[in-house]
Write a structure and sequence with these properties.
Blueprint (H helix, E strand, L loop, with lengths): L13 H15 L3 H11 L4 H16 L1 H12 L8 H16 L4 H16 L4 H11 L4 H8 L4 H8 L4 H11 L5 H8 L6 E4 L6 H8 L2 E2 L6 E3 L9 H4 L3 E3 L2 H12 L8 E4 L6 H13 L2 E6 L2 H10 L5 E5 L11 E7 L14 H4 L4 H19 E11 L8 H6 L4 E3 L17 E2 L2 H4 L5 E6 L1
The chain binds S-adenosylmethionine (SAM).
Organism: Phytomonospora endophytica
Keywords: Methyltransferase, RNA-binding, S-adenosyl-L-methionine, Transferase
EC number: 2.1.1.176
Length: 445
């Protein structure tokens, strides 16, 4: 298994497209959810072929760790140590055999011809032999055979998540009972949510026009039944944008916190690509306030500029840790850079790329950004500390260590919504709320 060429399959066959997506993820650290749509467009693949390519590329990316364990138990070596083209063809083949209705003989035959295309004739016999052995047992039997004895390890294997992530979810949830539902939700494609920009589009009219339904958490959310949001007239003309309802709800919560005194200067300290800045900017426009939107990355600052065009928002390409004049803002959002463990359903491969060692650097940055936000607030002003991760080290522990502020109970900002704990903060969950697992702490200076 040496000398992998790393060639692309370059064809419009769904398996080739799925393979090229997996290869881009393995070789170039690419994001499957960016590569796949581009390949489908370039190769003009639509309809059932596009659906199959999507299922295979995203499914095999999500299940990668579990597939690798099964393949490794057949080959006797780490799957990641095989040549990349062989490893990815085996993942794709094993995924079809174990997780789809593709007949095993077809999955094996197409995998053998795929490996010939991307790695030459030498590994063809190996791929054929390995996949035949994979096909000798159904998925349940593999899971049973390879399952560790501890329950969290077993859930991690069964639901294709790294163990450290399942443990982090369990710690945040407080027990293990909901883990299967949460892990299942991570493995399902999320529905598309729109944000009807306040002052531009009426949410109920947008719901009626799109066949969607109003969301329960954000007064601006429409949950779409399916289809391509880019074709919706309100999205085309900028009256609405695509945004997870949880993201909308935490931004709207900051605007809804009661505040005494001046309420004119708002700040978004981590603004790119600008979804929350667009909602806050729309609310600011209605309330005679202005928003400063800070983003350290030049490319992402440009994205914010596009997203907030026409709103009373000034974009600053700057470092939030050192930005601005102390004591000058009334409301500040810190939507901190984080592991993104609350949005795994959106990024098929992300769970396998993230490492526990990522946490330490992120928590230092999160602490410094929150301290900067507090420095920038006037006395009595409020900060919303937000992450799209439920990891306790990135959420409660950061909020509770913040100095010079007291926690505001955030739960009344979500009237009629259950399962928001832990008091006084809000933790949303995909399996409870249908949103990304957004965390919100509201702190008053
Ligand atoms: C979770 S994202 C924000 C998402 C955004 N609020 C939205 O709703 O579209 C975090 C952002 O913080 C930016 N960032 C990272 N470090 C930063 C810093 N020191 N100062 C300002 N922005 C920073 C990242 O580039 C990234 O765009």
């Amino acid at each position: 298994m040496t000398g992998g060429s790393g060639r692309r399959a370059t064809s419009d066959d769904p398996r080739s497209i799925a393979y090229d997506t997996l290869a881009a993820v393995s070789r170039d650290d690419a994001y499957a959810n960016l590569v796949l749509p581009r390949l489908l467009t370039e190769r003009k693949v639509t309809g059932r072929d596009a659906a199959l390519a999507t299922e295979l590329a995203y499914g095999a990316s999500r299940a990668r760790g579990t597939l690798d364990r099964i393949v490794a138990s057949v080959t006797g070596r780490e799957t990641a140590s095989l040549d990349q083209p062989v490893a990815d063809v085996l993942r794709l083949g094993a995924y079809q055999i174990l997780y789809t209705r593709v007949p095993a003989h077809a999955a094996v035959a197409t995998s053998v011809s795929l490996v010939r295309k991307v790695a030459g004739h030498r590994p063809a016999g190996f791929v054929n032999a390995v996949l035949r052995k994979v096909a000798a047992r159904p998925l349940d039997s593999w899971l049973h055979k390879l399952s560790p004895s501890d329950p969290v390890g077993a859930l991690a294997l069964r639901h294709a998540h790294p163990e450290w992530i399942v443990r982090a979810f369990a710690a945040s949830l407080g027990d293990d009972a909901e883990l299967p539902a949460l892990l299942d939700a991570d493995n399902a494609a999320p529905s598309v949510h729109l944000c009807a920009r306040p002052g531009r589009v009426d949410r109920d009219e947008l719901a009626a026009a799109t066949g969607g339904k109003p969301g329960a958490l954000s007064p601006y959310a429409v949950i779409l039944p399916g289809g391509a949001p880019g074709d919706i007239p309100a999205v085309v003309d900028g009256g609405a944008h695509v945004q997870d309802e949880g993201s909308q709800a935490v931004a709207a919560a900051l605007a809804a916190v009661p505040l005494e005194g001046r309420d004119e200067r708002w700040l978004d300290l981590c603004a790119g690509p600008g979804g929350k800045a667009a909602l806050l900017g729309s609310l600011a426009a209605q309330r005679g306030a202005t928003l400063d939107a800070v983003e350290v990355s030049a490319h992402r600052a440009r994205l914010v500029e596009k997203t907030v065009a026409g709103l009373p928002v000034t974009v600053h390409e700057a470092d939030g840790r050192t930005f601005g004049e102390d004591g000058t803002y009334d409301r500040v959002l810190v939507d901190a850079p984080c592991t993104g463990l609350g949005a795994l359903r959106r990024r098929p491969e992300a769970r396998w790329r993230r490492q526990p060692s990522d946490i330490a650097d992120l928590t230092v940055l999160q602490t410094r950004l929150l301290a900067s936000a507090i420095r920038l607030l006037r006395p009595g002003g409020v900060v919303a500390y937000v992450t799209c991760s439920p990891h306790l080290a990135e959420t409660r522990e950061i909020a509770e260590a913040a100095e010079g502020v007291s926690a505001v109970d955030a739960r009344p900002l979500f009237p009629g919504v259950d399962g928001l704990g832990p008091e006084p903060h809000v933790q949303l969950w995909p399996h409870r709320h249908g949103t990304d697992a957004m965390f919100l702490a509201v702190l008053r200076k």
